[in-house]
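Sequence, structure tokens reproduced for absentees:
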Amino acid sequence: MPDLSPGLATLKTVIDATSPLTNDSWEAFSGIWRPFSAKRKEILTVANERERYLYFVLEGVQRVYYFDDQSREATLVFTYAPSFGGVLDALMLASSSRYYYETLTPSVFLRASITDLQPLIDTRPDVATLIRLGVTSALSGVLERLVELQTFSAEDRFKQLLRRSPHILQLVPHKYLANYLGIDATNFSKFINRMKI
């Protein structure tokens, strides 16, 4: 196997830890990814438009967020290296996105278009398994977050976030973390000041 670019080597490490591909499938799968970079606060996916790409984050932090009809904003998920990103439901359902995908910092990715990815999903069972496991893992995280939002106190949601992702306070601006947790920014600051982090 030829030497891989650092980005593809990182992608292969993540895939091997999730659901390794055969050599032939890896060759096909690795061939569809292209380098892509974006500046800070760049919207990569716009609500009401199709999601055309699956992203693999190499550098930077991004978020998926939603605006309701009263222009209230809800941060739904953060992505950062090394993980997949984009609006997955719109991508896999070939539908318009209900959400925005935005960079919070300058970001570097590999990205694959759905027009290149879908034929591999359709013809290579190991690629289909990889995608299914990835989507299932994302769904599991969403369900866990719903339980936290509906049953945990604001302070417990904050503590759970720190248990799950202790590094997140250094990666993501606090106003977005407060929004993600459904906590008033003032209370979020109080939690930070009260807990020795």
In short: The mean pLDDT is 92. The radius of gyration is 18 Å. Residues 125-151 form the longest helix (27 residues).
